[in-house]
Design goal:
single chain; about 300 residues; alpha+beta; 5-stranded antiparallel β-sheet; about 30% strand
């Protein structure tokens, strides 16, 4: 019987024991080449990405951070400062406030007995001057009508009584609520006031006024608000001031030889002494206001 041809052909495909099977070189799988190409492209992309990140880091580190994290970020913004963004009041507005509330006019008579007016205590506007100011401008209905009498030892004075709360509230309305009037007696010098005595039993003050005061003056003070700026608590107004005597006194006779528009004009030179007084009086101040309850209140005056 002939050998099975199918079995014979199969035996030829099986190598002998310990023999090595050699495959043709062109039988390498094609998908291996594709893999190598992909790895090469990824390597190139990795190098390009590294260069890009390095460039961004040195140009703008913030850009690198936002890009590398994959998050969308924006520059940090701070809340706007309301006081800085709000324009300061106009000089005309502060001029009106000073005139209507604080009786500080652009032109005022320099007749001072104490510090009833700001202009009379402007160079040292301390608590003493502030108390004199509010007492000088306190409404009559704040005083106790039943307690008003003449000073027993001085007929040119009289006494009025006012509650501590009323006087202290008046102080806050003008100068802010940072300080309170001390509950103690107080004496005044060179003022329309003599003293005020604190009465614990009634929580009030007896205020001793001088009487019979009066007079006139030819000296005027000229004031001008030149600038207003915002600050942390409110505003600061820059004010210039000069004191001038409206009457010129001289031992020289006036000259009458000059005429203007057909009218004789008498000329008199200002004495050097008076010129020096005007120059010395020229001053600049910072009026510091705090903003409370939607209004500005004067807290201090600083001479520049």
């Amino acid at each position: 019987m002939e050998p099975n041809k199918i079995q014979e052909n199969t035996d030829k495909l099986i190598p002998e024991n310990n023999a090595t099977l050699h495959l043709p070189k062109n039988t390498e799988p094609k998908n291996n080449k594709a893999l190598l190409w992909c790895l090469g492209i990824l390597a190139i992309l990795g190098i390009a990405t590294t260069i890009t990140f390095a460039t961004l880091y040195f140009v703008n580190p913030a850009t690198l951070t936002s890009t590398s994290t994959g998050a969308t970020t924006s520059e940090t913004t701070t809340e706007p400062n309301t006081k800085e963004s709000t324009p300061a009041p106009a000089t005309t507005e502060i001029t009106k406030l000073l005139e209507e509330k604080y009786y500080f006019k652009e032109r005022d008579s320099y007749f001072c007995i104490g510090a009833r007016n700001l202009v009379c205590g402007i160079n040292n506007f301390d608590m003493d001057k502030k108390i004199q100011f509010i007492i000088g401008h306190a409404p009559e209905d704040l005083y106790n009508e039943e307690i008003r009498s003449r000073h027993m030892n001085n007929p040119l004075s009289y006494i009025q009584n006012i509650s501590y709360d009323d006087l202290n509230d008046l102080f806050h309305s003008y100068f802010g609520s940072f300080n309170d009037i001390a509950k103690e007696s107080h004496a005044f010098e060179n003022s329309f006031l003599i003293k005020m005595e604190y009465l614990p039993e009634s929580d009030s003050f007896d205020i001793y006024f001088k009487d019979g005061l009066g007079g006139t003056t030819t000296v005027s003070v000229f004031n001008k608000v030149v600038e207003v700026n915002n600050n942390e608590d409110g505003i600061v107004a820059t004010i210039i001031s000069v004191t001038i005597n409206n009457v010129i006194s001289s031992t020289n006779e006036p000259n009458s030889w000059n005429k203007i528009e057909g009218k004789t004009v008498y000329e008199m030179g200002i004495p050097l002494e008076d010129v020096n007084k005007i120059q010395e009086s020229l001053s600049a101040y910072h009026f510091n206001f705090v903003s409370e309850n939607n209004e500005y209140k004067l807290v201090s005056i600083e001479k520049l």
